[in-house]
Amino acid sequence: MTSRAVAGVAMALCGLTAAACGTAGAGATPAFNPPPATPQQQAAPSEASRSNGSKGEPSSDPAPGSTASDPLHGKVVVIDPGHNGGNAAHPEIINREVDVLTKRKPCDTTGTSTNNGYSEAAFTWDVSKRMAAILRAKGATVKLTRKNNTSVGPCITERAAIGNKAKADAAISVHADGAAPANHGFHVIMPKKINGPVDPVVADSRKLGIAVRDAFRAGTGLPYSNYIGDKALDFRDDLGGLNLSTVPKVFVESGNMRNPTEAAKFHSPAFRQKIAQALADGVQNYLN
After folding, report:
1. Residue 67 pLDDT
2. How far apart are CA 72 and CA 28, in angstroms?
3. What percentage of the chain's residues is helix, strand, coil (to nearest 5)?
4. Rg (Cα) of the chain, in Å, rounded?
5. Where are the beta strands (DSSP E) in the chain?
6. What's the pTM?
7. What residues contact residue 91 under an 8 Å CB cut-off, 6+ apart?
8. Tell me: the pLDDT tens digits for 137-157?
9. What is the set of active-site residues?
10. Which of 49, 101, 219, 235 could bond 151 through an S-S bridge, CB–CB 3.0 to 4.6 Å?
């Protein structure tokens, strides 16, 4: 990557769709520069994805054989795995600015990583797939905003549009933060009224956020964030994925990937399954 491209990616890191630069709230500190991209992060997108900004059709599947007795039968859930593994290699795509109504921001960002290179994009993709399987087993129709971890994007505006088009009963964007190592804990981000399309679902988004917060704490044992939000709840008006949503939607920052204790947990497949189960429980509690 040229020095100009590297600089472009660095700029994109803090144009987050969530708080992954650690600059989302008062007291947060800028993220450290991530380690060199892993082969997974550097993988080139498919030709189809590269030509259209990675709008590839995300998966949308109900559980096979679901019946009316299933607890989430008839419900539609959209899961947005934050970032994408191919973003770092294509700053010319992710640095393109888009309108999120309250400001202009990069199309997408690279996200953060643990100190030994486990990327946020890989983490969110794994957790989201696990969560989708749990919700489908309960009878829900589930759509993911991206279909792999090797492509680019989609843009934050497109991620919101996918939930809107699906007429989701609930949408959730999965992330992990990249703050100073002493910072720890998870938080949930919810929208504010902006005199825009999200306004009618702000109240329901708050209900969804509280349900997810409570289930996440109970299911993972992770503490509330000690650096962002009040009791792990944070309200923002600068995220395109929230501002442009017409369905109830929240972001979850699952913890701090730069905190050694939390990073070790994120590396564990068993703990990622715990996170997925907790998020699914939170969504189900809200829908029921």
Report:
1. 78
2. 37
3. 40, 15, 45
4. 17
5. 60-62, 76-81, 97-99, 104-106, 141-144, 170-177, 187-191, 233-236, 249-256
6. 0.81
7. 1, 5, 8, 9, 12
8. 999 999 999 999 999 999 999
9. 253
10. 49
